Each structure stands twice: as C-alpha cells, then as structure tokens.
Amino acid sequence: MSESGSNSTNGQQQGMLKQKQNPLEFTHDKILEDVYRTHFHCLEKCDAASLYTVASNVLNQSMDITEKVIAKGEQPMYMFKEDTTITSQQLAAKLKRIAYLMICTPRGEYPVHCTTMLILEQLKHYSWDAKVLIVEAAFALEYGKFLYLLPLIAPCQQFESSFADLHGLLMVPQNTKHLSHFNTVVKKVMQVVECITQWKKLVSAGHDIRDVPTLAETLQEIPVVVYWAIFTFVSCTGEINDFTDNKYQKHELSTHLEKKLDPILGEFKELLKKCIDEIERIEDFTSRKNIVTRGRDIVKVLKALIICGDKRDLIQNVYYFGLTEEQVKLEEFKKKCVLLFISGLENVDDDIKLLNSVNEKLKEKAREVENYRSEDFKILWIPIVDEWNEEGRKKLENKLRDTKFGWYVVKYLNFETSLKLIKEVFKYEKKHVIKLMNPQGKVENFDAKQIISQWGIDGFPFRTSDQTRLSQQWKWFWSEITKFIKEIDNLIEEEDCYLFIYGGSDTKWVQEFTKAMDELKKKVESNVDLNMTIESFQLGKEDSKDVPRFWIAIDSLLTSRKQVKGVVPQTNEIKRLLFLKQDPKGWAILSKGKNVRLLGHGEAMCRTVKEFETWHDKLSLMSFDVAFTEHYRGIKEKDGSKRCEENVICYGHPTDIVERITCPKKDCRRPMEVTSVNFKCCHQHKQ
C-alpha cells in the first residue's frame, strides 16, 4: 500500500474515532453505570498490600531517576532496594497481559476508554482497590524501564548502557521538558491510588454505615475514581514509548487528565476526611462510653462525659454558683457522691426548688448512713438544649443570676459526643432526670428524682435500696389505718396529694384542728399556682370505737416484733407512733401520698396549719411538706420543747417487755429505763 493510501486509511480511522463521544465529557452517572456493570462479587484475591508497596517503590524510584536526568544532577542518594515481593506467577502473567494491552492502545481519548473498560471486564472479580493496584503494577512494568536511565547519570558498565540503548532510553534526555510534565501526571494518579487504598482500609474496618454515613457516599464515588485512575494509567503507558522517539510531541490528553484528576482527587480526599472524622468520633465515643459505664473514678467519668477534645483537662466549662460565680475544675468532685441533674431549660423551676431544698438540708446538718456522709455530696446540673442560641443563653444566665444555687453547673454544653453519651447511657429523652453517682463514678440510682421528690432529705443517701426501704417503712401503718378510714386507700397512690390524719382525747383541740384544716384546704384550692390537693381525716369520726381498735392493733404490732430476735424493720416507727398518741391535746400525721413526712404533736400542728399565711411564700422554693415541717419544728423550738419525752405504754404484764427501748426523740436516742410498764428517758437525771 502506498504511503498516501496508508495516510488516507489512518485519517479515516481517526475521523471515525472523533465521531465517538469523548470520555472526558462523560457524566458522573454514565461512568458509574458503565463501570458498575463490569463489577461482580470479589471472588479473586491478591495481596493488595504487597502489590501497592512494590508498584509504588518501582514508580517512585523511576521518577527519582528521571528527575535526576531532567536536572542533569548527580547520582541518586539511594539505590533501588525491595524487601517486599510478589510470589504469584498467575498474577505476574496477568500484569504482563494488561501491560501489553495498554502499550498497544492507540492514542486518543476514546481508544483509552475502550482499553480501560476491557481491563475492568478482565478484572471484574477483583475488589475495587485490587483492580487499580493491578493496573498500577502493570504500568510500573513499563515505567520501570526508566531505572535503566541510571547509566546516563552515574558511572556504569557497558552492559548496562547497552541495555538502556536497546530500550531506546538514550533518547530520553532530548524530551526532558515533556518528561517533567508526564511525571506530574503520574504523581497525581499515584495520589489517587493512595486514597483508594486508604478508602479500602476504612471500609474493611467493619464500621456500621449508619454510624459512618459518608462511607455510603464513597461507595457511589469509588467506581468513578477507579475508572479515572485506570484511564490515566492506560494513557500514560501508551505515552512512555514516545519518549524514545526524537520526534516526540506532547499529547494534549495528559494535560486534560491532570485537570480532570484535580477535582476528582480533591472531592474524594474530602470524603475520606469526613469518613475519618466520623470514625474518630465513633472511637472517641466508644472510649468515653467505656469510661462512663465502667466507673473507676468520678473525676474521669465526668471528664469523659462533658469535656470536649482529647486534652480533657484544659477546657472545663463547669461553674460553681453560690454567692458568686466561680469557674472550677472537675477535680473538686474527687471522692464525692454526685447528684447529676440533667434537664432542658423549660419547666425546670420545680426541680431546681427540689434540689435547692435538699442541698440546704445536706449543708444544714451532718448525716451519715452506711459510710455515706452528707458533706461528701455535690449537685451538678447539665442543662441541655437543641441549640445554644442567644435566647437560650439569656434564659440560662437569668436563671443562674436569679437563683443562688449553691451547686455546680455545666454551661453551654454543645459537644455532640457528650450529648449522645447522656442520651444513650443515662436514657435522657428531654425528661428531667437526677442520677446518683458514687465516688467511683458508677450510677447507684438512675432515678434519684423519685426518692428525692417523695422523701426529700429523709431519702438520704438516695440509693435505689433507700427507695425500697422507705416504701416499706410505713406499709404496716397504711395496712392498719385503711381498715378504719377506707377513703384513704386510693389517695395514698397520688404523689401530689397531702393527707392529714389526726385524732386525740381533747375534744376542743379536735374541733379546732378540724376547723383550721377546712380553712387551709379552701386557701389551697383558691390558689391556682399550687398544683396539689389536701385531704384530712379524723380517726374515729364515724365510729368512736375505731380509736381504741386502731391503737390496740399498733400495740400488737410492736409486741409481735419484740418477740423476734435481732433487728426488725419498722420497729422504731411503731414506737414513735405509740409515743405520739400520749399527747394530751391530740396528734396529727402529715403524709405525701404513702410517704409519711411528719408525726406531729397537737398544739404545734394546729398552730402550723393556722399560720399558713406566714409561711406559704416558702412554697415557691420548696414543697408543701418541707415548708410545713420547717415551720412546725420552728414552733417546737421556740416553745422550748427540747426536753425528752416521758411516755407510757401499758402492757398486760411486765414480762411482756422483752427489750430495752430508746428515747424516741431524734437528737437523744439514749436507752430508756424500765419502771414497771412505763417508758421514760432516764438520761435527764444525769443532766
């Protein structure tokens, strides 16, 4: 065929190729669809790590030598060494076949695309990273020829120079300008390969896609990224042999590829960064959750719970609000029990009032129960809102300014991991909760709010076991009293219902107290701000015989308990009730639901009810039962009623008395001497 005929044929072929769509103009979705059709289950395996190491080393060493040639520099600082090998002969043969395909690919975008799709078809049973690594290794077979350029920049033997000449590499120095740009494209595509191997490690780590949602995005991107990486290797392989031609002309495709790879690489790197950030958050969350749930030390637990970042001792947004606002370190909670209050900013006033009341009582009088001491208790409030905007900040600041808490507050907690921990570990779902944490950081009561609401300071130290103990403490009383006042049975299940049960031998006092209670109930009902009900019941009102029957039943309870060896629960409560009935005026019991809050003497109880107007302002700061009890005790103290009780309980015979009885007054509790069948505190004789 003549030269003109040959040129005509080539021109026709090139014209047909130009009519084909340029792959550089393909949309993302078209490439994704075409490439995904070539991908099947990953049935074939290869040592991706070794392949990546060997190929990268060959390419890096080759580029190092070519850059020395370009710069006409000195001998490379290191010689080519390889500790990693590929032992699979089958894989080696596959690399040669793919390298041959790439070498034989005509110049131009569409032929490169066709070869790329053919290679993807041949590698359809390999994973995405393995596909691109195999092609990179095949490219390294050709690009590795530049290792033979060493004779041009270093002393060598004639054999080495001849070997380089056989490959046509002695012509390379004439094309160094284009070789420099070529290396830039190779380095770029190697960065893409590095990102793909990094992606594979993230995918293989076993993270749930629900926890790392960006991984799902990468699954939509990886086929396209792999396509362009292979496309670039095919294009560059075909260009390698052109460097041995003294008439070499730079192909525009490499310039277009560099521009194409830049956004692809940038976007994929951004996705990987997001994946890594999400995984780091998961790992940080897991680490913190382990600290919080295992509970070794309260300070470490609180730091893991609320402090942002790795250096958890630097940024501690914890403040103590007493007379002044003071920023503190979490080390203040060392070896302390913590009442952890978690809430929003809405409808929080009642809970703040409740905790303020408990906090005052903890400081007011030293208490100790089974090595739990009141001075070792601290209250920490974590306010939580969806977003700390200006309105939320002002609301919190106003609340902190208007209320002298005397406890600790975490301000503006917006650390995502902390919020997730609080919701997951402490089951917080916008319902206000109070958790009791011991000095080891373990939660001893997930619902301390219940016992504090029902029992106040009497629930100290607020453990779950204390709730059980207190709920059983007066069970015997309700079992007996409901036999005589049946209406009470349903009311004691209502937590916001306050019950007054009263009686006595002084008719005038009973009438006076009944009238005072009627007035009190009217005042409470007329006040819409008081969300509570008050009910009162006189023992024996319907049948006067109920009075002796009730007391005989209580007396029998005490007798039966004294016949049991060891400490019997509720014995002291029975004694206190029996002593109460000796008051010559009368007696009254205040209960919040089934929780008995006060056993009161007649005169002081009647005065407290009558003087409601003088103490009702306290109801904005504390619950009704707490305010009532405080006023009652104030009256008792003013009256000088500090002497110990001298009460009488009559039994059929002195032999019925089988144990010593202590003085029922709480600040005495000394043994009482037995004289016949009378119980009287004897310690007064020693004063």
TrEMBL record:
The keyword DNA-binding does not apply. Residues 545-683 form the Sieve element occlusion C-terminal domain. Pfam families: SEO_C (PF14577), SEO_N (PF14576). It comes from the Eukaryota. Residues 28-292 form the Sieve element occlusion N-terminal domain. Residues 1-20 are annotated as: Disordered. One of its GO terms (biological process) is phloem development. The keyword Coiled coil applies. Residues 345-375 form a coiled coil. Signal peptide: none annotated. This is Protein SIEVE ELEMENT OCCLUSION B isoform X2. It comes from Vigna radiata var. radiata.
